[in-house]
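Entry 14. Structure prediction run on the chain below.
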Amino acid sequence: MSGLLGLIGLGHRARNIAVGVEAVRKELQAGKCRCVVVAVDASPRAVDKVVRLAGAKGVPLLTGPGAAAIGAQLGKPPVMAVGVRDRALASGMVQLAPART
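Output returned:
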């Protein structure tokens, strides 16, 4: 998981990720997300909002660390979802993280 957190931080510094459920939904609707990382402890409502849309768009879903860990990596409060816009970064994350079931 720490490798995934590192890649999330890298994406954030490069401005290649969308942070938070609503931002991820907007990116998914615009067709800009290459993968989505959902916190392992995300609320059912957040999961429902993001997972269904990502599934409909054919975007890979990954189970990430806890929301607090993702938020801490980004210098923010707990973050339940992160959308990745960069193709190479998304590919690296898909190789590192388990797919969400």
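The first strand starts at residue 17 and ends at 19.
Filed with the rest of this week's runs.
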